Amino acid sequence: RRRLLLVSNSTLHGGGYLGHCQQHIKNFLGEQVKRVLFVPYALHDRDAYARTAREKFESLGYGLDSIHESCDPVEAVRKSEAIFIGGGNTFRLLKALYDNSLIQEIRKRVLEDGIPYMGSSAGTNVATISINTTNDMPIVYPPSLQALGLVPFNINPHYLDPDVKSTHMGETREERIRQYHEEPNTPPVLGLREGAMLLVEGDKAILQGVTGARLFLRGKKPTEHEPGTDFSFLLIDSNLQNL
Length: 243
What we know:
Elements: E1 3-7, H1 22-29, E2 35-39, H2 46-59, E3 63-66, H3 73-79, E4 83-85, H4 90-99, H5 103-112, E5 117-120, H6 122-125, E6 154-156, H7 173-181, E7 189-192, E8 196-201, E9 204-209, E10 213-216, E11 223-225
Parallel strand pairs: 1-5, 2-3, 2-4, 4-5, 6-7
Antiparallel strand pairs: 1-8, 7-10, 8-9, 10-11
C-alpha cells in the first residue's frame, strides 16, 4: 500500500518548521515508525538542514537519520522505515537523487515495500511524474526531469492566486500551468496552496490542511477544491485524459 504525505510548504506564516502539519505527521507515521530517513539534498548546507529536521522530528517522538551522513545512500534507503524529503531547490534535489542512484530504490521502498513517504515543497515535486511544474530556477542540470513517479500527476507547491490589485504584468501561476498543458499528453497538475497537503493511502487521495487547492486538467477550465476533497480519481492513470 502506497502511503504518501505530500505537503506544499515546510513553514507557514506565523509558525515554525513543519509546525502547521506536525499533527498530520504524527497521524501519518503513527507509533510503528521509530526512525525517519531525511533527504536534505535540496539545500546546500545539508548539515544545518539535518539539524533543523532532527530537532523537529525528535520533538514529535521520532529519531532522524540524514542520508547525507551515510557512506552508502542506497543502503540507507533499503534499511529505512520511512522517508522524508525536504524542500529547497527542486533541480538540485533531483540531480542528487540521480547522482546517488536513488530514484529506483526509493520507488521500490515506497511502492513495493509500502514504507511511508513524506515530501515538502521540492520533496513533494519529486514525488510526482516530473518536476516540469516546479517554481524553482534550474540552477543545476539533472539528467532528466522525470521524477519518482509515486503518483501519476504533477503538483505545483506554493500555488499562488493572481493578485487582482497588483500592477505586475508577469505571468501568473495559472498561465504557466496552462502553457505546460499546451504540450501534448501532459498530466493533471494539482496546485497546492501554502497550508495544504495531500494524503495518499493506497488508491485514496484526500486533500488536507487549512487551505484549498486548484486542479488543472489539460483542455479544461481549472476547478477549485476545499480541504476534505477526494482526489482518488487522479490516481487512476488510464482515465485522466478522458476527464
